[in-house]
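Here comes my example:
=====
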Amino acid sequence: MILVVSPDHAPYVQQQLQSCYAIGHVCGLNSRSSRVEISNVDHLFSQFHFNASLVHRKRVNVGILISGSGSNMARLIHESRRRNSHCHVSVVIANKIGVLGLEVARELGVEAVVIPHGNSRPEFERKITKELEERGVELICLAGFMRVLTAEFVNRWREKVINIHPSLLPSFKGAQAVPLALEAGVKITGCTVHLLRKISTLEKFLDKNRWR
């Protein structure tokens, strides 16, 4: 983004922006010159170690899978709309009809799809993959998604599935993580964000948050 402001206002505008550079000034138009002329842009950007290609940075296309109220989903959507975000949420998929998360997603302007899990896990996952592929999804986030995924699905989306688990893994795995932590009487608990690589092993933690 390029802003054109009065020289008198330039110092104030620069103070209001997190990061900006003065790259030139506006000159009077010569009747014999072209209407618009830009020169030395690459040289100017190089002085500030700025990569001009970042202006057209492509955001990662994200699909979110949910099973309930979508509280984590809503936070992810809000964060994706921050100016410095690297992602865009294009679709939310729920495995249950009528869950609150579907309504929340639609209110936030995100397409919401219901795919009941039924009795066939492979067929259920094929339908999910079809919906994701049709929208060009590059990264899947499991935000309160209460279904175990098959190895075939994980392999199809290898290194592209992120899970939010309500414990400090490897402690308290599974759907009852919070009750198990309370029953154990631990003084510190939290949540873990990890890449889902295999069903039996969580090979790479991305982040952990702790609280007492």
About this structure: The chain is about 30% helix and 20% strand. The CA atoms of residues 110 and 171 lie 34 Å apart. Residues 10-55 form one domain.
